[in-house]
Amino acid sequence: MRKIIFFLMFSLSLVAQKVEYINLDQNIKDKRGLTKSLTLIDTRETGEIGILSPKGQPIEVKLANENLKDHIENWFNRDNKDRGSNDIVLMLEDLKIYNEQDEGEKHPYAKARLKISSFIKRNDRYYFINRFDNVIVSDPKRTVSAPNYLALQISDIITEFIKTSYLSSVSGNSIPENEIRNYDNYLKKNYSAFNLELKDGVYKSFRHFYYQEPDTGYFADKDKKGNVTGIKNTEGQSAALSDMYCYVDSRKAYRVTPLGFAEMHKDAKGFYIVSSRKKLLSNSNTSDGIIIGAIAAGGIGALVGGIIHSELNKGNVNGFGYRSPTEMNIYIDALSGAYVFEK
User: Fold this and answer.
1) Predicted confidence (pLDDT) per residue in 146-187, tens digit
2) Cβ distance 221 to 232 under 8 Å?
3) What is the dihedral of CA 121, 123, 124, 127, to 10 degrees?
4) Is the pLDDT of residue 266 over 70?
C-alpha cells in the first residue's frame, strides 16, 4: 500500500515539475543617472501566475525569483551605481497566464495579462508616471512554446517599462500615500471628460481631451453631407492626423485611428472604441512584441525633481502579441492614453 501511495505521489510530482520561468535579469541602467531607488508594491491577490498545457503537458509559469520586492531592489542596485534623487515606485497589479477561447475563433489562445504602473514618490506623496495594462496573445501557428513566448514577452515589457519610467513626464496631480492603491479613481476625479458634457472641438492629445481643453487652432472639416473628412487649422491647411488625438462633434467624441475616425463610447470603466488588434495595427510597420512610443504622451504635467520629459509622441510602452481579428471594447487608458486590449 505504501509503495502505491509513493508511486502516485512520485507520478504527480513529475507532472508538476515542468516550469517556465520569467527571468527579470536584463540591464535596467538609468543612463541619465536621475534615479536614486526602485521599489515595488505588489497588490496582486495571489503570487500564482498560471499553468498552460501545450500538447497535454502542464507547464507552470513562475517568476524566477518570487520574492519580487527584494529582487526589484537588488536588480536596480546591480545595474545602477550612479544615483540621482528620484525614488521610483512600481505597482504590480496583475500578472496572469491562461487559455481563452475568443468568439469566432476555432482554437483557444494562450494569453498573458499584465498590469503595472510607475510613480515618483516625494514626501509621502506619489506622482503618476506611466502604466502598462494589456493582454498579450500567443499565436499557436507561429509560436513553438506559448509558455516560453509569454514569459519572454513579460520579461521584455517589464524591462522596457522600467527604463521608460526613468525619463517620462509625470502627472501634475499628487496622490497621498493612503490613496496609492486607489490611485486610478483618485486621479480620475480631476478629469472633466468623466464628469461633464464634452466640448466640441479638436484635441491634439489625450490629456487635453480628458481635461476638456480643445485646441483652438484646429477644426473638423466636413463635406457637403456633413461628414468629417479631416482636420484643418484655422488657415485652412490640412493637419496630419498622426498629430491629432480626437475630435468632438455634437458632444460625441471620435478617436483618430489608422483606419479613420472611430466613435468613442463611454461606460463605468471609461472611454472605449469597438475594434480589434488587427484593425488598429494594420498600418503599423512594427513587429509583434514590444512597441515603444505607439501612443501620444499628451500634454506635459508638472515635472518633479530631475525628470526629463520625453517628446510628445514617445514615452509609453505597449506590448502586443498576435494581431488577432477579435472585435472587442478597446478602452483608452485615462492615465497614459494607450489602448487597453482585454482579450
Assistant:
1) 999 999 999 999 999 999 999 877 877 899 999 999 999 898
2) yes
3) -40
4) yes
Strands 289-292 and 317-320: antiparallel
Task: Please count the other Cβ atoms lying within 10 Å of the Cβ belonging to residue 235.
Answer: 6
- Pick 17-184's CATH classification: 1.10.10, 3.40.50, 3.40.720, 2.60.40: 3.40.50
Find all residues with CB under 8 Å of 121, minimum gap 6, and list them.
Answer: 87, 88, 89, 127
Residue 87 bridge partners (DSSP)? 37, 121
Residues of the chain with CATH 3.40.50: 17-184
161 near 139, Cβ under 8 Å?
Answer: no
Q: What is the secondary structure of 242-263 as a DSSP string? A: GG--EEEETTEEEEEETTEEEE
pTM of the model: 0.83
User: What are the grid coordinates assigned to 250, written together?
Assistant: 455634437
Is the pLDDT assigned to residue 306 strictly greater than 90? no
* Cell reading at 17: 515539475
